[in-house]
Amino acid sequence: MVSPKNSTGSRGLCPGAAGDQFDTEPAPDCALCPRLVSYRDETADQFPEWFNGAVPSFGDANARLLVVGLAPGVKGANRTGRPFTGDYAGDLLYATLTAFGWTRGSYAARPDDGLELLDCMITNAVRCVPPANKPTPQEIATCRGYFRARLKALPNLRVMLALGRVAHDTIMTTFDLRKSLFPFSHGARHQLSPDCVLYDSFHCSRYNTNTGRLTPEMFGSVFTAIAAELERS
User: Fold this and answer.
1) 84/76 Cα distance (integer angstroms)
2) Rounded to the nearest 5°, which phi and psi values hold at 65?
């Protein structure tokens, strides 16, 4: 169980996250990446009742923990409009967050389930659903402006959790750190700055869990380490 945060005011932005003129969240109809816009439009033609837009971050604006995923899933966050909501990855992620006390309410895989995140926020490296779940390097780079702005707006940020290599690399680039010095590895801990730590995990996708690359126990062990890290901070 995560203890209540001891809010002493902002200790400043993590180094390397100096933002630019991006807002913290893109508009739902963000048009910066033409390929992603085209795919959103194609999906909207098939499923006009879905969200079909740039998915905003979800959680506590004063969070000490930021969970960073890859991008919205076409039948998950792209459909519901909330990160990791409506697909298997979300089932595992929110169940784990609940087990460690980072939620209030019940997760029902829909954005109006009343679930709240406590001391935690979830975002994605790329905010729009990419074809085949594979954003291009240019799309990742373009969306990084929103990621920088998101970091800048989290005054109490102490720990980030990268779900997968793309999220890890996005964080490394944002902090202007050499990836070779901070290799991605499940369960790895990286000291990014005096006040900010990164933990890595394999992505909690159905593929990774079905193949045994990631088990619920492996996933939970990373959160155990994060909870202990925040107890010390």
Assistant:
1) 6
2) -115, 130
217 token code pair: 């126990």
AA identity, residue 134: K
Which domains, from first to last, does the chain contain? 34-232 (3.40.470.10)
How do residues 133-142 score in pLDDT, each as one tens digit?
Answer: 999 999 999 9
Global pTM reads 0.92
- Token output for 31: 């048009």
Quote the CA–CA distance of 77 and 57 in Å, as a whole number.
11
**146 DSSP 8-state letter:** H
Rounded Cα distance between 81 and 125, Å, is 15
CA distances from 22 to 26, 32, 135, 147 (A): 8, 12, 20, 9
Rounded to whole angstroms, how far apart are CA atoms 156 and 215? 30
Mean pLDDT of the chain: 92
Is 130 a residue whose pLDDT tops 90?
Answer: yes
H, E, C per residue of 144-188 = HHHHHHHHHCCCCCCEEEEECHHHHHHHHHHCCCCHHHCCCCCCC
User: What does DSSP assign to residue 86?
Assistant: S
Q: Compute the distance between CA of residue 190 and CA of residue 157 in angstroms, rounded to an integer.
A: 15
Helix (H, G, I), strand (E, B) or coil at 116: strand
Residue 188, pLDDT > 80, answer yes
Give pLDDT tens digits for 63-108.
999 999 999 999 999 999 999 999 999 999 999 999 999 999 999 9
**How much is the pLDDT for 75?**
96
